[in-house]
Amino acid sequence: MKTNQKKAMPLLTIGGIALILFIIEAFSVATEKNWVAKFDLRWIDAIRSHIEPAKTSVIKFLTNFGSAEYVIIMTVILVVILFILRKFVVGLWFGGTVLFCAVVLNYILKHVIGRNRPDTKNWLVSETGFSFPSGHATASTVFYGLAALFIIFMIRQLWLKLVVGFVGLVIILFMMYARIYLGVHYPTDVLGGFLFGLAAIFLSTGIYFYARKPLQGLLKKMRINDKSIV
Fold first, then answer.
1. Which of 36, 16, 10, 9 is nearest to 196 (CA)?
2. What whole-number distance in Å separates Cα of residue 60 and Cα of residue 55?
3. Which one of 12, 108, 117, 200 is least enclosed by Cβ atoms within 10 Å?
4. pLDDT tens, 118-169?
5. DSSP state, 119?
6. Contact partners, residue 75, CB within 8 Å, separation at least 6
7. In whole angstroms, what is the distance from residue 44 CA to residue 63 CA?
8. 3-state SS assignment for residue 117
9. What pTM was estimated for this model as a whole?
């Protein structure tokens, strides 16, 4: 139990900080603070100053891998695989975190904040719904971030942990960049999705380390042998 607590506390701390930062940003967006407009204009100008047809085609294709639809499908597939491997607790944790935080909570937050998207004349793809927080940024951060974190806890080599973390971060940052480039989100939208996603994965993982043993004990009473070891 003490080992689990040692693993959980840093994760819960990071998740708590990310959540506080998200709340501050969400409040700033909702109340239209001056820094929000300045931040958005600066990054929009930097990212959208070089729009090229070939580059746009590639980004349009790759951004699909951060959509809620893709993330839902991949999550279901991974959960089924984990269940087949009898890693029931990990499967429930992973699937529950992604689907609840990246899909349900993101949808609720969008409607609570109610921020409209940027001017449609600048869009390079068609989109619907509200703008904050970015669904692609949230889904990518939760899905790829949680997958990377899971792998990091599975492997022992420090250099490999760093590689996995770096690859996961690059994927997330690309999705954030792509949504701004395509003109369908403000930079503060993708930043909000990133912060909320970070809060979700770190808080969820911290809770997982506390809840894994009791859940395995409950499953054992039901004569279900769980092999989740992370």
1. 16
2. 9
3. 108
4. 987 888 888 888 999 999 999 999 999 999 988 888 888 888 999 999 999 9
5. P
6. 94, 95, 98, 99, 143
7. 18
8. coil
9. 0.89
Say if residue 119 is exposed, middle or buried (CB neighbours under 10 Å; 0-12, 13-18, 19+): exposed
Give the 3-state secondary structure of residue 81: helix
Give the N- to C-terminal CA distance of the chain in Å, as an integer.
13
* Residue 168: half-sphere exposure toward Cβ, Cα within 13 Å: 23
| Residue closest to 205 by CA, chosen among 160, 129, 137, 154 | 154
99 token code pair: 């689907």
Q: Which residues fall within 8 angstroms of residue 101, CB to CB, at 6 or more apart?
A: 138, 142, 196, 197, 200, 201, 204
Judge if the upstream peptide bond of residue 133 is cis by omega within 30 degrees of 0: yes
Query: 189 and 44 in contact (C-beta within 8 Å)?
Result: no
